[in-house]
Amino acid sequence: MKHFLDLSRFTKEGVKTLLEVAGEMVPHARAGMDLGRGRILATLFYEPSTRTRLSFEAAMQRLGGSTLGFADARATSVAKGESLADTIRTVDKYSDVIAIRHPAEGAALACSFYSQVPIINAGDGGHLHPSQTFLDLLTIKTELGHLDNLTVVLAGDLRYGRTASSLAFALAPFKPHLVCVAPEGLEFPPHVVRRLRHELGTTVEETADLVAAARGADVLYVTRIQQERFFSTDDYLKVKGSYVVDGHVVKGMPDHALVLHPLPRVDEIAVEVDDDRRARYFQQMFYGVPARMALIALLLKLIPQAVPSREVAGEELNLTCPNPRCVTASEKYLRKLYTPVLEKETSLFAELGERKRYRCLYCDYEVAV
Ligand code: NCD
Q1: Bridge partners of 230?
Q2: Before 176, cis peptide (omega within 30)?
Q3: Residue 261 Cα, ligand 1 centroid: separation in angstroms?
Q4: How far apart are the two ends of the chain, measured CA to CA in Å?
Q5: pLDDT average, residue stretch 341-360
Q6: In the predicted structure, residue 53 carries a pLDDT above the cut 70
Q7: What pLDDT is stored for residue 189 in this prediction?
Q8: What is the pLDDT of residues 273-314, one digit of tens each?
Q9: Residue 263: Cβ-neighbour burial (10 angstroms; 0-12, 13-18, 19+)
Q10: Pairing, β 219-222 against β 151-155
Q11: Which of 51, 81, 107, 316 makes an SS bond possible with 102, Cβ 3.0 to 4.6 Å?
Q12: Which of 100, 163, 222, 283 is the best mutation target for the ligand 1 pocket, counting ligand atoms within 8 Å of the beta carbon and taking the most?
């Protein structure tokens, strides 16, 4: 395990190993340990954060190490025009592992090409948030006892939110039944649904009926509308407040079910739900510490444990990624890397009048040729 960029790059066995190590960290998440003494974690946060940054710092300190970094890139040389690559070449001289959150999609992968130390993706735009997903899996595994064949309702902004798609991809090997409830226009992008259904064989159902979906849920995973990623305020106001998980929604849920949310919430979970035994979003935050302790300890080889993963190497192609938020659009020096889309139903491409599709290695958007 060299970097931690995308949880879906690990095999099912790999994810299980990660969860075992995180489970062993639970008692140490309060008591602390000495394993990481003398090691430094750098946290580079180019976007706002409360939980992710603080729990990464808490995790490193509970491991016995220390932290440095910034929570506002405007106070760094980025404001003078420094590239991401040069910032990483700097910070890797001062730290042993780097957690980075950046608005450009694929930023963490780009950093991994320039870093001498492990990179952790702490959120790259609307793309992925693998350490959140890892703590989500740890929460579900600990609270429900297993991850197999669960009915997981993903409610909220599935288009711009990175946590819901990250969770969907990471759960895929565990054969979930995914039920998506999104306001109009905020559904999963077509390439996400296609990949889940046709490449990973996941059942994905879409519905507008939140109450009925919640009734059959093992997990109701709620997300906030990502206002900061909208191109216009008018578009945001059209969907603001369009769904609320309140006492009525939760009342019909099975007894064993969990209501989770990566937080922060705005208005999508009513405070009356907080006292329901199924509401576990505050407990979920705690798991961020042992989950991130495990990731840091494994990346720093403080624990000698192999974690099986799939290497995905890109092919350099002279294609422009269609995603305006892709890191290749802002960091122009990056090599344009793609992987062929392996669609189980290749006839789908023919129907679309395409010969082949490639997936951008950085942001996962597809280009047809
Ligand atoms: C999430 C994020 O940043 O994507 N927050 C988090 O890390 N806990 C969810 C969000 O901001 O809506």
Answers
A1: none
A2: no
A3: 9
A4: 34
A5: 77
A6: yes
A7: 93
A8: 999 999 999 999 999 999 999 999 999 999 999 998 888 889
A9: middle
A10: parallel
A11: 107
A12: 163
Query: Considering only CA atoms, which residue is closest to atom 1 of ligand 1?
Result: 262
> Which of 337, 336, 355, 338 lies closest to 346 in space, CA to CA?
355
Residue 348 has pLDDT above 90, yes or no: no
Residue 344: pLDDT above 70?
no
Overall pTM surpassing 0.85 (yes/no):
yes
pLDDT at 355 > cutoff 80: no
Q: How far is the CA of 163 from the centre of ligand 1 (A)?
A: 7
Cα distance between residue 351 and residue 363, in whole Å? 25
Confidence of residue 269 (pLDDT cuts 50, 70, 90): very high
pLDDT tens-place string over residues 200-259: 999 999 999 999 999 999 999 999 999 999 989 999 999 999 999 999 999 999 999 999
**Average model confidence (pLDDT) for the chain?**
95
Per-residue pLDDT, 356: 87
Distance separating alpha carbons of residues 38 and 60, to the nearest angstrom: 11
Q: Please list, in sequence order, all residues whose beta carbon lies within 8 angstroms of the beta carbon of residue 289, skipping any fewer than 6 positions away.
A: 25, 29, 55, 58, 59, 62
CB-based contact 320:365 (threshold 8 Å): no
Distance 207 CA to ligand 1 centre (A): 24
